[in-house]
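Exercise 7.
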Amino acid sequence: MKLALEKSPIPKTHALLTKRLKQPLFDPNWHFHPEYQLFMVVKGRGTQFIGDSIRPYKEGEITFTGPNLPHLWRSDVESQKNRQDAYSEGIVVYFNGNAIGENLLQKEEGLKLKQLLEKSVRGILIKGKTAQEVQRGMQNLVKLEGLESVLGLLRILNLMSETKEIEFLASPGYINSLKQGDTERMNTVYAYVMKNFRNKISLDELAQLTNMTPTSFSRYFKVHANKTFSEFVSEIRIGHACKLLLEEKMNASQACYSSGFQTLSNFNKQFKSITRRTPSAYKKEFAPH
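Solution. The predicted structure, written as tokens, is:
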């Protein structure tokens, strides 16, 4: 498996790299790299993993991740198969911290930008009107070359540094403890859970899959995911239930059993714990009107 952390995606002759992605599914590999990354979903839906954060993603979302923060966008395969237009599209921008210049970051003019870069270690979701402005900026950035591309990036970063319309993704103090071999093992775990979360999943299954004892796997997963395996599975199930409530217009009972929960009472408890809302309140707040 070729992982993005193996080498820098930016040519040594450039300060940044901007790419328009168009492929059946976004890269499902759990990975990290030393560059800052700005990513916009143009088309496609699925589950986003950033650090220890798990959440559904959709068109138009923009995230900013700092160096060596593990991440992946796992596309919804089932909702897209049998569709002729089943393509995921996005715009990604990579840049190194030294592309901006350490000297600028130490001056008053660069203070807010420095603070933005520091915030990115947790991963940031850009929201509201700021997201709309950044969307336009990224669509334009793809067309720019030379110094214009650097200026375009600075304009986008300036917008993000000035706004309060952001949401942190990874937990405070999250630390990446993964090595390259770990990313391959965690990819195996993630892929298995995403395929089987509607069914009962035992620790024994994952322990066997990763060639570990159940106790060793539990300890390993808690260290690298910053949560227990059962918490991880619950977050995947609740994320799927959220999509069913909004996109399929299911009620709580239907979403519960379609997401792998065995009882409605446990579903409601887990849903409120993770989203801080009841299923009906979540639907009322986020369903399109």
